[in-house]
Amino acid sequence: MPLKIIITGASSGLGKALAKHYASLGAILGLIARNKTSLESLVNELPDTVSVFYAIDVRDAESMQSAASDFIQRYGCPDIVIGNAGISQGTLTEYAEDSKIFESILATNVTGIVNTFQPFVAVMRTQGKGNLVGISSVASCRGLPGGSAYSASKAAANSYLESLRVEMFRSGVSVITICPGYIITPMTANNPFQMPFIMTAETAAKKIVHIINHKKIFSVIPWQMGIVARILRLLPNFVYDRLFSIMPRKPRG
Asked: Buried b vs exposed e over 213-249: b needs ≥16 C-beta within 10 Å?
């Protein structure tokens, strides 16, 4: 039987690349994103495979539950649910107007994953199988100047996913955390600094599929960024603070 897969943030970037990769394998896809036009365009690009899309915001728990119910009714419980939807924007605490941006980033990048997984957890537990995959970021390993909301959201996502993994222990359901480095997507297009080991979305998608297939519970991609992440975590605070206080920052707005 073909794999059944839910992907959020599917209309562009990494989500779109994942959708195309799994479509090439003949998977049944449930694609979720806010942009209906982009989703329709993506479905038209896919090879002859079964796919359904839902133009909704992952912050809307009720709509996410309705989409999950519709997918399960049509095709059964998915084998893989990928919580990929995320947003990033430069923020500074000193600006009052950035508070709303903080809220939006945290709601999308953290609560959005909860809303993505929640409708499937009980069904997967009952079946004793399934994969819940959270796309985090290497930015979760330390707080990045100018990216405080994004770093905080991804660090919170890591902790949430770890908690869920423990809750699902010995249930047959895998909870997988994946922290990509830089990927060529609209999210990184306006970064005014060098992005080491940057990958295409297609390359990142292939690596993520490999990780899911092998049920690796925590991975940083590419492997070079995994080494960078370990080094950053080991840096004493006084060294980290001095180094990163002078680093280029993601622009606000």
From this structure: eeeeebbbbbeebbebbeeeeeeeeeeeeeebeeeeb
Determine contact, residues 152/173, Cβ cutoff 8 Å: no
Secondary structure (3-state) at 247 = coil
Kindly report whether the global pTM for this prediction surpasses the value 0.85: yes
Domains of the chain are 4-244 (3.40.50.720)
**Would residue 150 show up in a list of annotated catalytic residues for this protein?**
yes
pLDDT in tens, 111-135: 999 999 999 999 999 999 999 999 9
DSSP secondary structure string for all residues of 108-138: IIIIHHHHHHHHHHHHHHHHT-EEEEEE--G
Determine which one of 22, 75, 95, 150 is catalytic. Answer: 150
